[in-house]
Amino acid sequence: MRDGTKVTKEGIDQETGAITTPIYQTSSYAYPIGEKYRYSREVNPTVLKLGEMIADLEEAEMGVAFSSGMGAISSTLLTLVKPGSKVLIHRDMFGRTYRFFNDFLKGWGVEVHVANPGHIIEMAKGEKYDMVFVESISNPILRVVDLVSLSKVCKENGSTLIVDSTFATPINQKPVVQGADIVLHSASKFIAGHNDVIAGLAAGGKDKMTKIDLMRRTLGTSLDPHAAYLVIRGMKTLKIRMDVINSNSSKIAEFLAEHPKVRAVYYPGLKTHPDYEIARKVLKGYGGVVSFDIKGTMEDSIKLMTKFNVILAAQTLGGVNSTISHPATMSHRTLSPEERKIVGITDTMLRLSVGIEDVDDLIEDLDKALSSI
């Protein structure tokens, strides 16, 4: 079954004949009828269905839903690492994830090694790590990891490979199929796709995912059933949304690359991107995020966000609406200036999340705004 069919197929409720998954808005279940569920923090039928759907889409054995993307990350990491574990990450990742590794886990006794952009495979080969954690497309400079090669290195060294695939989505890449042990998503982004829900997802082998699910129950990072319903509803259009978003983003990246007010464009689909050949190898589509540096100052870049009529200035991504943000003062504000410099996040960088609007309207909006600075 292909992805476009998987995301729309929920199954029929055997008791009522409902063709969509009901919202089981209850805290507990009557014994002995509800013995399977007992208490909704532990198991809820709506939330359980979402976990099954992400497992099916990622071609994994088991999926679990969480209250947020960071809930998925923290629950997974607290299950699989312990004081004395040695983990490898890369510096160019979501700021809050980076802080969780370097502030919490390192203080908890975990040995955290950090690779600079583009050097994760080289470092993974050099030492034996208990875990390697990567973003398949990094945030916000959009470096692409060769997961096929990295997974081989991890298997040879006995390292658990965890992949945050929020930017790629299961439509553009399936990390478990490419050799990862676990794939994570901030489902608030492209998977739900409408900027109206906070949720996280994880999928992988049953042995590890069963333990992670137990940790979710213990930590309380459980998803509300109504939020799960919204993610399920959003997933139904994931394939068609990503087809449009991939196309729009490629055209916008090409437009920005030629614009006189733009100094640099970061997009895996451009031949000038350092990982273009890797992206062609591991991705089916290049994704919906385009980062770019303008010619000007930080003040110019921040001011530019107020000049759009179609594109919204907001610290989010992955929705049907195009949004733009300033990583240095928004998503990556917790990184020090020195850390941002090493990653390549400049004061004039903007991160554009491309939506499903008419691409000509988006290009016109970008052109007018850029021409005003």
TrEMBL record:
GO terms for cellular component: cytoplasm. One of its GO terms (biological process) is methionine biosynthetic process. The keyword Lipid biosynthesis does not apply. It comes from the Archaea. It holds the Pfam family Cys_Met_Meta_PP. The keyword rRNA-binding does not apply. Its cofactor is pyridoxal 5'-phosphate. It comes from Stygiolobus caldivivus. One of its GO terms (molecular function) is pyridoxal phosphate binding. Keywords: Lyase, Pyridoxal phosphate. This is Cystathionine gamma-synthase.
